[in-house]
Design goal:
It is a single chain. By secondary structure, the chain is an alpha/beta fold. It has a domain at 9-98 and 164-250: 3-Layer(aba) Sandwich (Rossmann fold). It is 34% helix and 25% strand. The protein contains ten helices and ten strands. The strands form two sheets. The chain has a six-stranded mixed sheet, with helices on both faces. Strands 2-1-4-5 form a four-stranded antiparallel sheet, covered by helices on one side. A hairpin with a 2-residue loop joins strand 9 and strand 10 (226-232). Helix 3 (105-115) packs parallel to helix 6 and helix 6 runs parallel beside helix 7 (183-196). The radius of gyration is 18 Å and the shape is globular. The termini are far apart. The model has no long low-confidence stretch (mean pLDDT 95).
Length: 254
C-alpha cells in the first residue's frame, strides 16, 4: 500500500543520451497513483523518450545511456537485480499504431498470459475480463478465433489495451494511442482511459490539446528535452506560469 506522499512512478534528475546526443535534460517528475498524466510538447521534445524510460524500452537501443533514478513505487527500475520482464509486466505499454500479433483475437491475449505462466484454467476468464475492461467484449465475443488484423483500427487499439491490462499491470504508458484513429474511435479510447484510471496509473503522450484537457488530471509540458512546467490540467491550460507553456497551448509557439 502506498503512503500518500509516495508517487506511483517517478524519476529524479534523468538525463538520457543516444550516442553523444542528449535527449532528456535533468528531468524530475512524479506521477500520482490512479491519475491520468498527459505529456505535451512539440515533436522531438523528449515525451516518448521519457515514457519509454519507465519500462526499460531503451535497453534495446545499443547506444542509449541513462543517468539519474527512475522508480516504480520505491523500487529502482534500473537496479542490477531488477527483472526487466517483471518491470514490463507491471508497467504496460500501448503504442502509437495498433500492433496486434498475427494471431487470433483470443491468442493475442493468451500469448502474454502463457509467457508469464498464468494457470491454464484461468486464461479464458482473464481474457474475457480484459476484453470487457477494454470495452471490446460485446463486439468480439462470438468471433474470438478471428484474426486480430481483421478488426477495425479502433478495435485493434482497444485489443492492444486489453493485451496490456490482461497482465494486471500497475501503470499503463500510452504513446499517442489515438493518433491513427478516427474521431469516433478516439472518443471510445478516451472513455476507456477515464475508466481505466480507477485501477491503473496512466501516462499518455498526446499532441491533441483538447484530448489532454478532456482526460488529464495533470499535464507536463516539455520542450527541447526539458520539463518546463508540470501542474494540474486546470492550471496548465488556464493559468500557466511559464511563457513557453502559454505560447504552446495557445498555438503561438515559436
Amino acid at each position: 500500500m502506498l503512503t500518500p506522499d509516495v508517487p506511483k512512478l517517478s524519476c529524479q534528475h534523468l538525463n538520457l543520451y543516444f550516442g553523444t546526443k542528449q535527449i532528456l535534460k535533468d528531468v524530475s517528475i512524479e506521477f500520482p497513483k490512479n491519475q491520468v498524466v498527459s505529456l505535451i510538447g512539440p515533436s522531438g521534445c523528449g515525451k516518448s523518450t521519457l515514457l519509454r524510460s519507465f519500462n526499460r524500452m531503451h535497453d534495446l537501443v545499443a547506444d542509449a545511456r541513462i543517468e539519474g533514478k527512475l522508480f516504480l513505487d520505491n523500487q529502482d527500475l534500473y537496479a542490477p537485480q531488477v527483472s526487466v520482464t517483471q518491470i514490463r509486466k507491471r508497467v504496460g505499454m500501448v503504442f502509437q499504431k495498433p500492433n496486434p500479433l498475427p494471431k487470433s483475437i483470443y491468442d493475442n491475449l493468451a500469448y502474454a498470459l502463457r509467457i508469464h505462466q498464468f494457470p491454464k484454467n484461468e486464461i479464458p476468464q482473464l481474457i474475457e475480463n480484459a476484453l470487457r475492461e477494454s470495452y471490446l467484449w460485446e463486439e468480439v465475443k462470438n468471433e474470438l478465433k478471428k484474426p486480430a488484423v481483421k478488426l477495425s483500427g479502433g478495435q485493434q487499439q482497444r485489443l492492444c489495451i486489453a493485451r496490456t491490462v490482461v497482465l494486471r499491470p500497475e501503470v499503463i504508458l500510452m504513446d499517442e494511442p489515438c493518433s491513427a484513429l478516427d474521431p469516433i474511435s478516439t472518443n471510445k479510447i478516451e472513455e476507456l482511459i477515464l475508466k481505466l484510471k480507477e485501477h491503473y496509473t496512466i501516462v499518455i503522450v498526446t499532441h491533441n490539446m483538447q484530448q489532454a484537457q478532456r482526460i488529464s488530471d495533470k499535464v507536463a509540458f516539455m520542450y527541447l528535452g526539458e520539463l518546463i512546467e508540470y501542474d494540474t490540467c486546470e492550471h496548465i491550460f488556464h493559468r500557466p506560469q511559464k511563457e513557453l507553456t502559454k505560447n504552446y497551448i495557445s498555438g503561438h509557439f515559436g
